[in-house]
Structure formats: C-alpha cells, structure tokens
Design a protein that fits this description.
single chain; 296 residues; alpha/beta; 11 helices; globular
Length: 296
C-alpha cells in the first residue's frame, strides 16, 4: 500500500523553518536557498490542504495546525536520524544496544564500569540515552532501560539490580563544627529538593519518626548530580542515596549530617520488553550488569 507522505525534503524544510521561524535562517541551516525553502513549504501546505505558517509583517508565525504538526514531525525526524546514525556506526556482527539510563546513576555508577563490558563484548555497539521521565518502548528506539521505581510497568521484564539507602548529607562547612542531635535540627538549614523525587525529604522524616515536619521547601534541582553539586557548594542539606556519594564521603568533601539511613521503598531494575528477552545484546548486557551489581 502506498504511504500518504510528503517528500522528506519538504519535511526537513518545514522542521527547520518551524524551529527558526524564518525561511532565511532555515535556508542557511540546510545550506540551500531561501526560495527553495519557500517552495518546499508551499508544496507541503498544498499537499496537506492547510496553512502551516502565517506571514505577518515580515514575521513568520505558526498556525495551530502547523505547531502541532511540527512537534510530531520533529519526533519522526529524530527517530529516523537516530536509526540512520546507529546503522552507520554499526560494524559488528551482533548488533547495537540502545540503553536508557538515569543521568546520575549512569555517570557515577554505570559508565565507570562499562569498560569491562566493551572489552568482553566488542561486537556490541552500546548507545546510551539519558531519561528522567517515563518512556514508551513501543514509541522509542530503546532496547533496555535502568528503571527506579516499582514493578507495575506492564509488558516488560524486570531484573532487580540494587536497593537504595538515603541519608542527609552536607558540606562540612555548613555545620561549622556543630553536631546535630536529631532530625528536627535539620530544619534550621535549607533543604535541597530533587524535582523528580519531590517527596524524598518527607519520606525520610516520616521514616525517622518526624512525619509532621514540613519538608517541601527549598530550591529544586532536576538531577541528583545538581543536588550533589549544590551540597558540595554548601547551599544546604541533601537527602541522597549513599551509593551516589561514596567518593565525596570518603574524601571528606561531604559528611553525614544525621546518621539515620533509611531504605527507599523502590529499587533499581533493568527492564526490557518481553519480546526482547532472547535478543543476544540484551541477554549478555543483562548478565553482565547483574554480575556488576553482585560485585558492588
């Protein structure tokens, strides 16, 4: 069946014009003439039967239809580009493995260990993508993922990697020689918040017997790495997984403020679609990663 699709050239011109809001800048980006971009956009609008842009006093403004179409087309082009680059980079006989990782877990725990995997399996092309929010295996070119949470995700296979213990930490300078007597003493400090775990402080206070403390105030950071850097800079107290700050604690750049470690309710898992359990790259990466977790 013939697909109902405009030309790739038209879609590329539309994507560039939508991002630049200028045919001239889109032409510069694509290394073609402004008239070529204008012609492709006109052909695309004729194909779709609706306007994608308004031309208002030398300004380019997207229509509502154009704005919605641009978001969808950008996703399609991104996926096509990723697939093309993966094929161009592929040189082995066993394929590539697209792995979605949590940024700080990846940079601090996983990536320093990957040398042993690539040495053992040089035929596998590893491609790492960072993810903070949930994704869809059906819509994204991802084979396996590192997931922190529970096991309620349908259609995937779970492999438990590790549990997590959190504890309040800070820079030594923040305490200024003061010894904290208990959890309530933390409220005299700024509490650094993690955006994707907004209840982290509340969960910790509840676990140590202080459920009534208001622990949601404080500057918010998107990644654990940013929270760690803020703590190192003395900006406040952070409640963090111990395994992510082992180096800083060992060197004395960070200290445990209140020595009451609390196990997290969730855990880290390697997950993949049920349909990929027998894929060679998935199988060997799973076995290698479980081995690394056992080694600690």
């Amino acid at each position: 069946m013939r697909r109902i699709l405009p030309s790739l050239a038209a879609l590329q011109c539309f994507d560039a014009a939508a991002r630049q809001l200028s045919f001239t800048r889109a032409a510069t980006e694509l290394n073609i003439t402004q008239s070529a971009v204008s012609r492709q956009i006109r052909l695309l609008e004729e194909f779709l039967g609706r306007a994608l842009f308004h031309r208002i006093k030398q300004r380019l403004v997207m229509t509502d239809a154009g704005d919605a179409y641009a978001r969808d087309i950008r996703d399609v082009l991104d996926r096509a580009e990723a697939a093309t680059l993966a094929l161009m980079a592929y040189s082995g006989t066993s394929g590539a493995l697209n792995l979605a990782i949590l940024p700080t877990f990846g940079s601090r725990w996983l990536v320093p260990r990957l040398g042993s995997f690539t040495t053992r399996y040089p035929e596998i092309q590893l491609n790492l993508l960072t993810r903070l929010k949930p994704f869809d295996f059906a819509k994204e070119e991802i084979d396996v993922a590192i997931h922190f949470g529970d096991t309620s995700w349908p259609g995937v296979e779970y492999h438990h990697l590790m549990n997590e213990v959190t504890v309040p930490i800070c820079a030594p300078s923040l305490l200024a020689g003061r010894s904290l007597k208990g959890p309530s003493d933390l409220m005299s400090f700024t509490l650094l918040q993690h955006s994707t775990r907004p209840d982290a402080w509340a969960d910790w206070f509840e676990a140590v017997g202080e459920p009534s403390i208001n622990a949601v105030k404080g500057p918010r950071f998107e990644q654990f790495y940013m929270v760690i850097q803020a703590a190192l800079a003395g900006l406040g107290m952070a409640v963090l997984p111990l395994f992510l700050v082992q180096d800083e604690l060992a060197s004395g750049r960070l200290v445990v403020a209140v020595d009451l470690p609390v196990p997290s309710r969730n855990a880290y898992y390697l997950v993949h679609p049920n349909s990929k359990r027998d894929a060679y790259p998935v199988k060997v990466f799973k076995d290698w990663l479980l081995e690394q977790c056992e080694l600690g």
